[in-house]
Amino acid sequence: MIEFPAFRAAAVQAAPVFLDTPATIDKARALIATAAAEGAELIAFPEVFVSAYPYWNWTMNPVEGGRWFERIYRSAIDVPGPEVDVLCEAARAAGAHIVIGANERDPNSTGTLYNSVLTIGSDGTLLGVHRKLMPTWAEKLTWGRGDGSSIRVHETSIGRLGALACGENTNPLARFALLAQGEQVHVANYIALPVAPHDYDMVEAIKLRAAAHSFEGKVFTVVACSAITDEIVERVAHDDDSRELLRRKHCAFSGVFGPDGRLITSPLVDNEGIVYADIDLAASISAKQMHDVVGHYNRFDVFQLLLDTTPANGLIKTGDVASSRGAESFTSDSPVSAVLPS
Among residues 27, 41, 47, 83, which one is catalytic? Predict the structure, then answer.
């Protein structure tokens, strides 16, 4: 039977220790302990909190910014890996569910990174790793694309928990795929975006997307956004124009939205901090009587969404290498399928 627990959620708005993974992991551990001491059973961290967002993609041309790729690659983590183990232990010690963004290295390539979101259970179990499906705009210079295998909702003691990274929360199909799996609590993690076009207000954009998902799905949305520090500005800025751009205000927002789409916390804008909300999942029941887009308020004979959960794999081995014919066959589903003759 579906459960409707009540619990406290924490949205962390903080900056990583830029490109310093051990120091950022230590900072995450301290923030987890702080939030847990306030009774938080869900602690959400920003996008790629471990341990850098590639701001240089927005302020330099690809040749100028290329030298930064090795730096972010070296600071990225393996999943599973020792940094994940530390975060899992921190979650277990705190008795809290953790959702945190990280740069993840592709296990088979030294040239591909993923913008990943790790979901960790309160017992310290790594529940899932979601790779951002489509890097946004300039982000394509740094990250590869995820696949549908990680568009998943996790059954937890605080309800059915889903997560998407930054611009994915603009994708109605990705959001619906989570709602259709019974999502009750949604984590949307973002980066502070001072480098957006001058007429783009990141704070209002985040609020609009979070309110829409909560209102449409009748779910709680926990928004956790990063912050910009002087350290990041001085490391990434290469001239006065880029320095001024990176110091732009009103570029980060964190908070929690209820199933009616309303903000239920004080807004946290730009500065580092933690906001808390007491969540009662039963509040979604009466709201869904009016609009249940994954149930009675839809027409699945008219509309259907196909979610392909097949993991992307560039190499599929077939055949028996130990066979008497001594042949090994390979197929590849991307970009070309081929079988070597025996």
Answer: 47
Question: Which amino acid would we find at residue 290?
Answer: M
Of 80, 79, 9, 305, which Cα lies nearest the Cα of 173?
Answer: 305
Q: How far apart are CA 317 and CA 197, in angstroms?
A: 46
Q: Which of 88, 104, 132, 218 is an active site residue?
A: 132
Taking the domains of the chain in order of start, what are their residue ranges? 6-290, 312-342
Q: What is the pLDDT of residue 266?
A: 94
Is the domain defined by 6-290 classed in CATH 3.60.110.10?
yes
**With 70 as the cut, is the pLDDT of residue 337 above it?**
no
Q: What are the E-state strand segments in 204-323?
A: 220-225, 253-257, 268-269, 273-280, 316-318
Q: Dihedrals φ, ψ of 158, to 5°?
A: -105, 15
Could you confirm whether 288 is annotated as catalytic? no
Answer yes or no: 47 catalytic: yes
Q: 88-124 burial, b for 16+ CB within 10 Å, e for fewer? A: bebbbebebbbbbbbbbbbeeeeeebbbbbbbbbbeb
Decide the pairing of beta strands 273-280 and 6-13.
antiparallel
- Choosing from 104, 139, 166, 251, which is the catalytic residue? 166
pLDDT tens column, 54-106: 999 999 999 999 999 999 999 999 999 999 999 999 999 999 999 999 999 99
Concerning whether 132 is annotated as a catalytic residue, the answer is yes
Q: Are 104 and 116 within 8 A, CB to CB?
A: yes
